[in-house]
Amino acid sequence: KDRVFNTPLCEQGIVGFGIGIAVTGATAIAEIQFADYIFPAFDQIVNEAAKYRYRSGDLFNCGSLTIRSPWGCVGHGALYHSQSPEAFFAHCPGIKVVVPRSPFQAKGLLLSCIEDKNPCIFFEPKILYRAAVEQVPIEPYNIPLSQAEVIREGSDVTLVAWGTQVHVIREVAAMAQEKLGVSCEVIDLRTILPWDVDTVCKSVIKTGRLLVSHEAPLTGGFASEISSTVQEECFLNLEAPISRVCGYDTPFPHIFEPFYIPDKWKCYDALRKMINY
Amino acid sequence: MLTAAVSRVLSGVTQKPASRVLVASCKYSNNATFEIKKCDLYRLEEGPPVTTVLTREDGLKYYKMMQTIRRMELKADQLYKQKFIRGFCHLCDGQEACCVGLEAGINPTDHVITSYRAHGLCYTRGLTVRSILSELTGRRGGCAKGKGGSMHMYAKNFYGGNGIVGAQGPLGAGIALACKYKGNNEVCLTLYGDGAANQGQISEAYNMAALWNLPCIFICENNRYGMGTSVERAAASTDYYKRGNFIPGLRVDGMDILCVREATKFAADYCRSGKGPMLMELLTYRYHGHSMSDPGISYRTREEIQSVRSKSDPIMLLKDKMVNNKLASVEELKEIDAEVRKEIDDAAQFAMTDPEPPLEELGHHIYSSNPPFDIRGANQWIKFQSIS
């Protein structure tokens, strides 16, 4: 009862509190009810948590801090219960950002985040809380951070996503195989920051085409970072421009949600256009 | 449309045929004096008056408004369960005396801003039941054209409807600053809940309002539970009216509409005279859970809800006052109930059948830009225009 407790409603306070606990060396796991509410705590995370080790010359650090937060669209969340803010945090050196795609992944990644000696933000896709069912071992196990996973091997196109979107592009890969005879390599990025550049680039060198998809708005979304790095590293291997299938540049809508999200049809369409480039 | 709605509510009484009015006025008195509970005071020498006069006209008006809000919230509950309303829906039945009492204590030119439990205030600020229900169902007849939903409804001098807890505190202080700057003798009511009282930005708003003597009335609607956490488990001090520290405060019985009205008038006069902000804590209760996905009984007992309903229901209290003092008869009030029920049913019918906003509006009103520009998005081949 004294290890898990409710806090009053103050995100900035909650995260600041967690940073303080972590600085003394104790493990702190702070929960922010929805990722949309993490913004009052943004200053604490970016200016305090991320920079503690750097500014104290490694004398102090808040590495034992993990922040968990439900993330992503859920079908009826509207503006403030559906956001995916990973791109805001990806811009901040000093923290790690992780997004699992399934219960098995979630347990391993969360335990890794807690043990990791850097402050981590763990975004949990809320739509999967009740939708995803999997066998999860009872004993603790770790899944390494900053390692993307290739969940389907292929040779024609690379598809990259994280969280809920992984399931969407997996379906798209199956559709592409069946209808177009195109073999897709599906990668779950898992850790957004620092992201596994090698796995993605190795895959693009093999296939020559890349499609990145996420629910967050297109401009400044994390797909732009991936796109930029890949074209730097693999320019001569690319057969077609890198495709980004993301949410529109609007606040997350209430009634328009089915049109806003990058569903499998939009991804499939983009993939088709890339194949025929 | 706004003035029509207001006048419809106000003239509800006078719509009876002339002969019946004559007979009716013989049986009823025009007004009655009531004693109301004394408010707890903080940093104040004297508080609002302990007696007040309620006229028959006002009484009927308040009764109708409270009953409309109650029925509207229950209808929203029904529509949500039928899946016409999706998303989040925070109902305020049980708290009707707060909205109607607050509105009775201020002028329509004053400003109000509140949290997401806003449907009652939307109605008292002049929106029709029809536009509220169709905003909930996301149709184009809604007050925000279907794009806002439950938590984002706006009207003239009513700034919403805010989803983020506590975010409306500094906004309310800002509105008050504008009132002071423009010198128009208006005040701003900034409402928030017992959960939000623990947010940092509320303290920041208190500080700025007190520092610059802003005509801002901070109102804490204390319904004893912040979502599922009772106030004892969330706050170091549950005397929310004292939390303003250097701001004088009042604790008001939020279930008695006359108490709320007098306290609001008192606070509004205080602010209008330039003495700075004031804090009001309204002790109230919500019957439903935090939102429609919360059954509301895992953190409190059914007996508690029942006991509040039977002892301090705001509509029942007003009804008893009026009937016992011959301001109205039970039959007359029953007639008002029937009228209200019909209005709500009509509005619900409209809300269920009105078409949804057209898809082109997905990109509208993001910026205030002159040339419409294309919204980049899900793929490069479907674009929406941003028009404002």
UniProtKB/TrEMBL annotation, chain A:
Its cofactor is thiamine diphosphate. It is found in: Mitochondrion matrix. Gene3D superfamilies: 3.40.50.920, 3.40.50.970. The keyword Cytoplasm does not apply. GO terms for biological process: branched-chain amino acid catabolic process; response to nutrient. GO terms for cellular component: mitochondrial matrix. One of its GO terms (molecular function) is branched-chain 2-oxo acid dehydrogenase activity. It catalyses: N(6)-[(R)-lipoyl]-L-lysyl-[protein] + 3-methyl-2-oxobutanoate + H(+) = N(6)-[(R)-S(8)-2-methylpropanoyldihydrolipoyl]-L-lysyl-[protein] + CO2. It is an enzyme of class 1 (oxidoreductase). Its EC number is 1.2.4.4. The keyword Mitochondrion applies. It comes from the Eukaryota. Together with BCKDHA forms the heterotetrameric E1 subunit of the mitochondrial branched-chain alpha-ketoacid dehydrogenase (BCKD) complex. The BCKD complex catalyzes the multi-step oxidative decarboxylation of alpha-ketoacids derived from the branched-chain amino-acids valine, leucine and isoleucine producing CO2 and acyl-CoA which is subsequently utilized to produce energy. The E1 subunit catalyzes the first step with the decarboxylation of the alpha-ketoacid forming an enzyme-product intermediate. Heterotetramer of 2 alpha/BCKDHA and 2 beta chains/BCKDHB that forms the branched-chain alpha-keto acid decarboxylase (E1) component of the BCKD complex. The branched-chain alpha-ketoacid dehydrogenase is a large complex composed of three major building blocks E1, E2 and E3. It is organized around E2, a 24-meric cubic core composed of DBT, to which are associated 6 to 12 copies of E1, and approximately 6 copies of the dehydrogenase E3, a DLD dimer. This is 2-oxoisovalerate dehydrogenase subunit beta, mitochondrial. It comes from Ovis ammon polii. The lineage of its organism: Eukaryota, Metazoa, Chordata, Craniata, Vertebrata.
From TrEMBL, chain B:
It is found in: Mitochondrion matrix. Its EC number is 1.2.4.1. Its cofactor is Mg(2+); thiamine diphosphate. Its main location: mitochondrion. Residues 65-359 form the Dehydrogenase E1 component domain. GO terms for cellular component: mitochondrial matrix. One of its GO terms (biological process) is tricarboxylic acid cycle. SUPFAM superfamilies: Thiamin diphosphate-binding fold (THDP-binding). It is an enzyme of class 1 (oxidoreductase). It catalyses: N(6)-[(R)-lipoyl]-L-lysyl-[protein] + pyruvate + H(+) = N(6)-[(R)-S(8)-acetyldihydrolipoyl]-L-lysyl-[protein] + CO2. Keywords: Carbohydrate metabolism, Glucose metabolism, Magnesium, Metal-binding, Mitochondrion, Oxidoreductase, Phosphoprotein, Pyruvate, Thiamine pyrophosphate, Transit peptide, Tricarboxylic acid cycle. One of its GO terms (molecular function) is pyruvate dehydrogenase (acetyl-transferring) activity. The pyruvate dehydrogenase complex catalyzes the overall conversion of pyruvate to acetyl-CoA and CO(2), and thereby links the glycolytic pathway to the tricarboxylic cycle. PANTHER family: PYRUVATE DEHYDROGENASE E1 COMPONENT SUBUNIT ALPHA, PYRUVATE DEHYDROGENASE E1 COMPONENT, ALPHA SUBUNIT BACTERIAL AND ORGANELLAR. This is Pyruvate dehydrogenase E1 component subunit alpha. It comes from Ovis ammon polii.
